[in-house]
Design goal:
There is one protein chain. A hairpin with a 2-residue loop joins strand 1 and strand 2. It is built from 13 helices and 3 strands; from the N terminus they run ααααβββααααααααα. Helices cover 72% and strands 3% of the residues. The relative contact order is 0.14. Strands 1-2-3 form a 3-stranded antiparallel β-sheet. The longest helix is centred in the C-terminal third of the chain and has 46 residues. The protein has one domain.
Length: 403
């Protein structure tokens, strides 16, 4: 009876549901361990503050996944344009009313609640939904450079341009994901190369404008991070975060120090969000920390490709691939930063790092993927039932004729 209720409630791809549980399991353990000391200092000895905060967010996110995976994906097709317009408005409002945290204005306060949202996370998903819709609508116009520029690159440039002044890494990541999605959608590669060239030129122009007309901007932070990443052999103490992350990883070894035994969690900034992967390796090692998580994201990518291949129409296939690319690319960037193979970007580890907006957005994305797989599974089950009915009817006819 309980198993029947579970199957009826949690539909869609079973493997993805299992991966969600794995991500949440690692998240609760790692967030509690990595933030217990800072929680003790900031919240009057309550070492479990961040743990309970993450537990509530993950519980809420599980509810979002369940609700969203029952919604038909045609809703996103119909509302894609409105989502994009809303994202642009929210990004613009962030410039005016945004809260400045860690030297950057990225969060928009929700009046009367005391909470803030990171509008770039919302814009990222809105843009992916819009691109999936455009790829489905304009499949016969993809060789027209003007058409592609108008309906694809202009929205991408608008979103990235609004994000870039305060969050260059996220803008570059969204641009890169958009290029991957458009490549999957069969937009000519020469067009994409042209857009990449224009994007580099655009970044240089925006940087020069920021330097020329503003006194307070993020250019110094971008420059320092790149300089530290490139010249770290000459000045090993320059990149404080990356160096302590590498210490955590190297001391974790193959099997880790055991849960709760991390020493770098009290030293490494953003240990429960941006650098949580390093803490996981320090406590659980390569075999029980790094490899299971890397495999989980790779399996998620594989399952997404499998679901997309089964789609009979273009929009759900592009939607699934776009959302899966978003999740996996962000996970890869976070891991590369943690091991010192990429400059510090400030990207969280999807469904694992402590967070609010990021956790909810990733939950919505997984729910949308499961929505597509739910429909595909229901269609396959109906086809099997029809085949069985045809077989039964055939057997009855044969038995009757034989009698």
């Amino acid at each position: 009876m309980q198993r029947g209720w579970f199957i009826k409630t949690f539909k869609g791809d079973r493997v993805i549901w299992g991966l969600v549980v794995i991500f949440m399991f690692y998240s609760l353990l790692a967030v509690y361990s990595s933030s217990s000391m800072s929680a003790f200092k900031e919240y009057g000895g309550n070492t479990a503050h961040f743990f309970w905060s993450q537990f509530i967010m993950l519980s809420f996110s599980m509810g979002i996944i369940v609700i969203v995976h029952y919604l038909p994906c045609r809703i996103y097709f119909s509302l894609a344009g409105l989502f994009l317009i809303a994202a642009v408005i929210l990004l613009a409002l962030t410039f005016i009313f945004g809260v400045r945290i860690n030297g950057a204005t990225r969060f928009l306060p929700i009046p009367g609640t005391g909470f803030t949202i990171q509008t770039s996370d919302l814009a990222k998903v809105a843009l992916i939904i819009y691109l999936a819709r455009s790829l489905a609508l304009y499949q016969n116009e993809l060789n027209n450079f003007i058409h592609v520029t108008k309906y694809f690159m202009f929205p991408v440039a608008l979103i990235c341009g609004l994000i870039m002044p305060e969050n260059l890494s996220t803008a570059v990541m969204i641009f890169g994901m958009s290029m991957i999605i458009m490549f999957i959608g069969r937009i000519p590669f020469k067009f994409l190369l042209a857009y990449i060239g224009l994007a580099v030129a655009g970044i240089l122009v925006i940087v020069m404008l920021l330097i020329a007309f503003t006194e307070s901007n993020r250019f110094g932070t971008w420059k320092n991070r790149l300089d530290n990443f490139i010249s770290r052999t000459e000045n090993p103490d320059a990149d404080y975060q990356s160096n302590h992350a590498k210490v955590a990883i190297s001391t974790g070894g193959l099997f880790g120090k055991a849960p709760g035994k991390s020493s770098q969690r009290n030293i490494l900034p953003q240990s429960n969000s941006d650098f949580i992967f390093a803490i996981i390796i320090e406590e659980y090692g390569l075999f029980f920390g790094a490899i299971p998580l890397i495999l989980a994201y790779m399996i998620l990518m594989f399952r997404g490709i499998t679901i997309a291949k089964k789609c009979e129409t273009a929009f759900p296939a592009y939607l699934v691939m776009g959302l899966i690319v978003m999740i996996v690319v962000q996970a890869i960037l976070n891991m590369l930063v943690a091991v010192g193979l990429f400059p510090v970007t400030g990207q969280t580890l999807p469904m694992v790092s402590w967070g609010r907006t990021s956790v909810l957005i990733m939950s919505f994305s997984i729910g949308a993927v499961l929505s597509v797989s739910r429909v595909l599974n229901a269609r396959a089950e109906n086809e099997e039932l029809q085949d069985e009915e045809k077989t039964d009817i055939g057997e009855k006819i044969y038995d009757t004729a034989k009698a």
